[in-house]
């Protein structure tokens, strides 16, 4: 579990994370944030998660329903739609390819000479 | 953790400040967003305290920007609010200027000539000809001096410019939401 995450990297995978979490089970906005934080993404802020959920809903990847809450206003629960499931599968495969490509580059050994070339 | 009335006021303040910046969203969506943010903030306040909940959601401006980006994408956006302000305020300004010009002409002819009927072509391009009639007993009446077609065209162009409405052409097609919200 990392201490913190690069916001730019996180921004790129936030939609994928949200789709996966909501594929596991439906949740309302704040619960999604809590689940992300429990997964180690402690620096994820609500201010970026709620609009992202909104965008996924607008794109037809999420459905919603309102459920009365004991604590006050009704909660808006998000669940994955059928297009959302397809998008999750595609994004997961794309992420795996991306990671494999990055790993392939990073696993190359660095020669001693390469480290000193910039000094001349 | 229970939320007191002061904390509820703080939440409400952020929610309404956010709402004021989301007028470019469709009305139903703006209301749904407002309700959702309120519900989540109440939940978060009960969990971590209102101060922390408000800190983590960021300012209303940043949050509004995120919602607008989620709706319209990252490219430059149009602004209905800007267009409405221009549509409402520019006629007031233009009418004030034209009215002052007409009054200046009227005061001039009254001071210089006294009774009679006097015609002026108006502010070039923007105003139709206006006629001032001064009777012997000092009564003054004015007719004409309205907007020319060019003035209407300029007004329309200003509304488009202030609202950046040409960007509407590039707006992404709106995917029908699957929401069941009412």
From TrEMBL, chain A:
Pfam families: PadR. It comes from the Bacteria. This is PadR family transcriptional regulator PadR. Gene3D superfamilies: Winged helix-like DNA-binding domain superfamily/Winged helix DNA-binding domain. PANTHER family: PADR-FAMILY TRANSCRIPTIONAL REGULATOR, TRANSCRIPTIONAL REGULATOR RV3488. Residues 18-90 form the Transcription regulator PadR N-terminal domain. InterPro entries: Metal_resp_DNA-bind_regulator, Tscrpt_reg_PadR_N, WH-like_DNA-bd_sf, WH_DNA-bd_sf. It comes from Actinoplanes octamycinicus.
From TrEMBL, chain B:
It comes from the Bacteria. Keywords: Membrane, Transmembrane, Transmembrane helix. The chain crosses the membrane at residues 79-98, 147-166. This is Uncharacterized protein. The lineage of its organism: Bacteria, Bacillati, Actinomycetota, Actinomycetes, Micromonosporales.
